Amino acid sequence: MRAAILDAYDKNGRELAVRDAPIPDPGPGEALVRVATAGVNPLDNMIVRGEVRLIVPYRTPLVMGNELVGTVERLGAGTRGLSVGDRVFGRMPLAKIGAFAEYAAVSASALAKVPDYLSDEEAACVPLTALTALQSFELMGLHPGETVFISGGTGSLGAMAIPVAKGLGLTVITNGNGASEERVRALGADRFIDYKKESYAEVLADVDGVLDTLGEQELPAQFSILKRGGTLVSLRGLPNGDFARRSGMSLVKRAMFGLAGRKFDKMAERRGQTYRFVFVHEDGAGLERVVGLFGERRIEASVDGVFDLADVNAAMAKVAAGGSKGKTVLRIA
Ligand SMILES: NC(=O)c1ccc[n+]([C@@H]2O[C@H](COP(=O)([O-])OP(=O)(O)OC[C@H]3O[C@@H](n4cnc5c(N)ncnc54)[C@H](OP(=O)(O)O)[C@@H]3O)[C@@H](O)[C@H]2O)c1
Q1: What is the pTM of this model?
Q2: Distance between Cα 195 and ligand 1 center (Å)
């Protein structure tokens, strides 16, 4: 099969090699999926640069790709809940990625059935960002009617996080690139702030939860608009001890991340707030929950561009260049 492979980490970035690799054998509890499309994420570039090695220490050569859409071709021993021919999607298991390939062997527990109304390209926009949003909002413990601020909501994460938040009954304020205002309002954003024209820190106060996609530089400002007792979930700040404990990491890593994230834990403690970090993990049942949240309203996916597997490096460069209006998708089958 053809696959996009990372041969070695490089902190300055490097191209993936598209070449033949053996079709994986589905192990117990796994399904062999013939991949139709795969979503390309900023995470893929971070993996190439070795920036998430402490969280997920992948060995190279590595078949890349964190989320897929495809058809179940074969089942491993004892695999339940799926049948050959099912159209499925999912965030690849953290322990074993590999969506940028013609076939992937994936734990059935990471997969959910794709709603018929989504095309393969549209479905590729959903798993990673929808699960990130769900896992983040669950950690915030918000209730319907409460308000969440999603920073940088005009990218691919916001394109799913905004409708998921609306599905949970939340009021959504987001900021981002002004060119996407109409699109994110149509997704359900109740209030939009153009980050080049207005500072959210000057106009917002006491929001019930914050979902940070901007990272360290912007964290003080985002804490300043969060209510006392509220939770800020960061997707881009530093992992902390709480994250390492939730992820079941070793004592050494707990101590290491405890130190790394202490600055933000302290920043939060000053106002009785909580700092949490999310690194999205696979969860087929969570994905089914997201599909259910939308029900009759249907998931609206924002596809920003479609590339062939052979052009994977152009797709990764597009994601790295910014200016995103949704998800960059690889068409594989
Ligand atoms: N930890 C996790 O599990 C996890 C999961 C998903 C995503 N993430 C992270 O979340 C971040 C966003 O992901 P994404 O896929 O949405 O990225 P993306 O598609 O590149 O979108 C980023 C968006 O943020 C906007 N932006 C840039 N600077 C901004 C600022 N100062 N204030 C407000 N908006 C700004 C960008 O606008 P311009 O067009 O003007 O640049 C763009 O619309 C990435 O860093 C990604 O790694 C983490």
Answers
A1: 0.96
A2: 12
**Res. 102: pLDDT tops 90:** yes
Residue in this structure with the two tokens 């549209």, named with its chain if needed = 122
Q: Domain ranges in the chain?
A: 2-125+301-331, 128-277
Q: What tokens were used for 63?
A: 């078949």
Alpha helices in the chain (DSSP H): 42-48, 120-123, 127-140, 156-167, 181-187, 200-203, 219-224, 241-246, 251-260, 262-269, 284-294, 312-321
- CA–centroid distance, residue 83 to ligand 1 (Å): 36
**Least confident range of 76-80, 271-275, 297-301, 302-306:** 297-301
Give the Cα separation of 142 and 259 in Å (integer).
Answer: 28
- Which residue has its alpha carbon closest to ligand 1 atom 2? 279
Measuring from each residue's beta carbon to the nearest atom of ligand 1, which residues come in under 6 Å? 41-43, 129, 132, 151-152, 154-158, 175-177, 195, 213-214, 235-236, 278-280, 322-324
Helix, strand, coil percent values for the chain (each to nearest 5): 35, 25, 40
- Domain spanning 2-125+301-331, CATH class: alpha beta
CA distance linking residue 8 with residue 5, whole number of Å? 9
CB atoms within 10 A of CB 61: 14
What is the 98 CA–ligand 1 centroid distance (Å)?
A: 23
The pLDDT mean for the chain works out to 96
* Single-letter residue type at 167: G
- According to DSSP, the residues that pair with 329 across neighbouring strands are 39, 306
Ligand 1 centroid to residue 273 C-alpha, Å: 23
Nearest to 24, CA basis, from 1, 7, 5, 56: 1
Fold of 128-277: Rossmann fold (3.40.50)
Walk across the sheet containing 2-6 and list its strands.
Answer: 17-20, 2-6, 62-63
